[in-house]
Amino acid sequence: MRNALTAVCLLAINLCGLPAFGQVAGGGDRFGADALLAGRGEADGAVRSAADWPRRRDRLLEAMQRVMGPLPAPSAAPLDVKVLAEERGRTFVRQTIEYTAEVDPRSGRAERVPAYLYLPIDLKAGEKRPAVLALHPTSKLGKAEIAGAGKPNRQYGLELAERGYVVICPDYPSFGDYAKDFAASPHASGTMQGIVNHRRAVDLLISLSQVDGERIGAIGHSLGGHNALFIAAFDSRIKAAVTSCGWNLFPDYYKGDLTGWSSDRYMPRIKSEFGRSPDRMPFDFHEVIATIAPRAVLSISPTQDANFAAEGVRKAVPSVAAVYALLGAERAFEVEYPECAHDFPPAMRDRAYRFLDVALRVQTDGRGR
Asked: Please, one GO biological process term (predicted)?
């Protein structure tokens, strides 16, 4: 890992003195090992110690919100959980539920999120389990995709429940049972709506007597993979995140064509304000992951992923690793490069579950306790 700073000066932008992402003075390597620790304008000097990092982290979260829209204050609305159905498995009960994520201040309409909630049935008196927020990939099935009704390599919600975790699997807006008119949303992006919904899912988990609120993780594949990173970035109650096929650097996403990121489901400002240009984007994914440090992150990034080319992950790893090293958490950031396409095969799911077991302090019997 290089010791010398590779990006020594970045040009200013209108918000908080941050530079446009692609503008690095002197042609420095914006993804180099020291890129996240270098200064970003006169008001944002180099990060030289762990004490300097919170200031930089705040600036990175601000940059993300330039694209996603502002993160609202936590909702004070009651969760108002409704159990719509219940099924009993061998080791768990699966409830089909709805909960309130927020109330739109303009219309007074409650944003109701459909979800599955898995509760273990073998709890001892007073026992509290770790919990996982399991986020589905792009699929018309939504939450059902990861609950056994979809592709065989996508059933991580079900498998984590079988492993003994409390698991919540919400629908992402416009998938599964969650109809969504994005034009009527109070948020600037579907991504921010997802963050709000997932933050409330964490509220719901913490409200349960069966859950240890200090041991909550997030996992997802593809769409769920980047949403696991987004919620972990904005909600420090997520102590560990697993992202499968969920990201790479924007210049390496379909050779820099960000059209897929710019729909109403995701971040339309990428088109309307940043011209779908990686060089104009105020943030990139190495910065998203850095905001999660020193909490645990496992990235599973297949070498043949046509959506998120692994080269765009490899470029980012040194700069993220430098932040984890600065914070004394070198072993908390891990990357796997399986030889497969855009998939979450059994060996990698097992790797993910063992990673969560360690990060959330689960006994090695794999039973969530």
From this structure: proteolysis
Please state the length of the chain: 369
Among candidates 14, 41, 13, 37, which has minimal Cα distance to 25? 41
> What global pTM score does this model have?
0.91
pLDDT in tens, 327-367: 999 999 999 999 999 999 999 999 999 999 999 998 645 44
Neighbouring-strand partners of residue 115: 97, 170
Q: What is the dihedral angle through the alpha carbons of 103, 105, 108, 109, rounded to the nearest 10 degrees?
A: -50
Q: For residue range 249-288, what is the model confidence (pLDDT) as tens digits?
A: 999 999 999 999 999 999 999 999 999 999 999 999 999 9
Tokens standing for 186? 């109070």
190-207 and 223-234 helices, crossing angle to 10°: 70
Strand duo 110-120 + 92-103: pairing = antiparallel
The radius of gyration of the chain's CA atoms, rounded to the nearest angstrom, is 20
Are 281 and 19 within 8 A, CB to CB?
no
CA distances from residue 83 to 87, 93, 95, 117 in whole angstroms, order as listed: 11, 12, 6, 9
| Terminal alpha carbon distance of the chain | 38
Going by DSSP bridges, is the β-strand pair 110-120/296-300 parallel, antiparallel, or unpaired?
Answer: unpaired
**Residue ranges of the chain whose pLDDT lies below 50:** 1-28, 42, 364, 366-369
